[in-house]
Amino acid sequence: MSEKSNTPEIKKGLVGVYADVSTISKVMPETNSLTYGGYAVQDLCESCSFEEVAYLLWHGELPTAAQLEAFRREEAAQRAISPALHRVIREFPHDGHPMDAIRTAVSFMGLEDPEAGDVSDAAQRRKAMRLLAKIPTCIAAAHRASKGLEPIEPNPAHSFGENFFNLVFGKVPQPEVLKAFDVSLILYAEHTFNASTYTARLVTSTGADIHGAITAAIAALKGPLHGGANEAVMHMLKEIGDPKIAREWLQSRFDHKALVMGFGHRVYKSGDSRVPTMRKYAEKMAEVVGDRTWMEISRILADEMLTKKNIHPNLDFPAGPAYYLMGFDIPLFTPIFVASRITGWAAHVFEQGADNRLIRPLSWYTGPEQRPVPALDAR
Ligand code: COA
Description:
Blueprint: E1 25-28, E2 33-36, E3 39-40, H1 41-47, H2 50-59, H3 65-77, H4 83-91, H5 98-112, H6 121-146, H7 160-169, H8 175-188, H9 195-205, H10 210-221, H11 229-240, H12 246-255, H13 275-289, H14 293-309, H15 316-326, H16 333-354
Antiparallel strand pairs: 1-2, 2-3
Bound molecules: coenzyme A.
């Protein structure tokens, strides 16, 4: 048997590999659908708030009215961050990316957390709630500091969505905008073993704590092939600028064999389950703002990509313009994804911790054969 035929089958990028079982969510690419705890994500978007979905991800069932009230109260009570963290955030370089700021803030909160070393399920859940509550405060404080503005104190009377807008802008928008934002949070909350979630599970499998797992997950999410795509989409739409030149712009991307951001997906090959719902709400934002430019460019790109390349848009494609129309600066788009995905990441941290085995794959060595170490003057 030749050396070559001994090589095991390598699934580059772990394509098609089932790494574990999970009860949290299910992607069904054959029907372009996604469920959280058995509920279709588009139904959750129409019937539930983000807080209800966060509860579902962490408990496996939707909350009763009393359970939801308790969950909301607990989250609202923990939004404030320490004076030390405020000082650290003020010292961040103002031209740094907000994803690096939130990654650093989460790591810092791990240092401060009273239960830092406790990886019991109960402690991990309490820490996850603190992270859910405090992440928007950190994102907004870093964003405002980068513009030379003072942070805004969280208001415990606000819902999760209202709180986010108030922390960033100092005001709460109209209900249509809040609903579209909530829908985006629900759609971003969870998506099986994507790169950042798997990162969180891998770190958890070593026995490390949730702040370490979430810090690593944020680092993974930042990449433009993953969560960073929602920002890249908006930069692309702005670069095109005018629907009249969208086809020509896309053709030049094809000519250069370049990626078109917001298109393609590792699992969905005939459409991302989340896109129709997010597109509907992005269209609503275009109506509210009275500017259809971005949705019109998006429509042309999506039609052309499908006709010419048979590639469908992913969630980041409608989410980018939706956030822009809501008034957010582009570098805040992926941090908003963090504010939502902390729910899914934490659910996976709990699940991994409950039935753990260290994640440690093998590598097939293709370097030089074993050889003697030459002396320094003989090299
Ligand atoms: N633009 C142009 N071509 C694309 C593309 C895109 N966004 N996404 C996939 N393709 C092409 C690939 O070049 C490849 O073509 P080839 O067979 O001629 O080489 C083919 O479609 C299959 O794609 P592949 O790279 O095997 O898919 P993947 O599962 O490894 O990668 C992504 C999935 C998401 C990383 C990839 O689609 C991508 O980079 N998309 C842009 C970034 C993005 O939007 N990320 C957010 C994901 S939710």
